[in-house]
Design a protein that fits this description.
Elements: H1 30-36, H2 40-44, H3 46-52, H4 54-62, H5 66-79, H6 83-95, H7 99-111, H8 115-123, H9 131-146
Helix pairs in contact: 3-5, 4-5, 5-6, 6-7, 7-8, 7-9
InterPro entries: At1g67623-like, At2g35280_TPR_dom
Organism: Brassica campestris (Field mustard)
Domain At2g35280-like TPR: 48-145
Length: 156
């Protein structure tokens, strides 16, 4: 029941006013909904979004949901091997203040030898003041990446 990946364990942001309980959805704004909906389940299981919920992901991307950009960045970079597109989406997730996106984008910038840019993004996490931030990010990113099936190429 307390499973972290449970579909019922969303941190959904409710957009409507709770005092208006007459189910009148005439004022609902889909832009706000898709921008602010929590995608924590899919951030932990990005391949699920690729295979089963692609249209939902596209709607969230159209409305600049930072978690959707994080997921798309991972899929583009690690699944499709489209590094530029992946980095673009990871940067967008960081701009949207998605911590895991900032962490992964910073790490990738460092590995691609863009040290000043990588350091700049990692410094946004204030890891020098709070070392546990980078530890938590690393655990979440590692867990996310472990769910992606890898194709191992033999090069002899």
């Amino acid at each position: 029941m307390g499973e972290e990946k449970s579909v019922n364990n969303y941190d959904t942001n409710y957009i409507c006013d709770s005092s208006n309980s007459n189910d009148d959805h005439s004022n609902s704004d889909p832009t706000n909904y898709f921008r602010n909906i929590s995608l924590s389940y899919f951030a932990a299981e990005p391949f699920e979004m690729l295979t089963k919920h692609n249209k939902f992901k596209e709607l969230c991307l159209e409305n600049d949901n930072p978690a959707a950009h994080y997921i798309e960045g991972i899929l583009q970079y690690f699944v499709y091997k489209e590094k530029r597109k992946g980095l673009f989406h990871l940067r967008q997730s960081s701009i949207g203040e998605y911590t895991n996106g900032t962490y992964l984008y910073g790490l990738l910038m460092l590995t691609l030898e863009h040290y000043p840019k990588g350091k700049k993004y990692l410094d946004k996490l204030q890891w020098k003041e709070n070392l546990s931030t980078s530890d938590h990010c690393w655990k979440r990113v590692k867990k996310t990446l472990s769910t992606i099936p890898a194709i191992i190429e033999t090069r002899y």
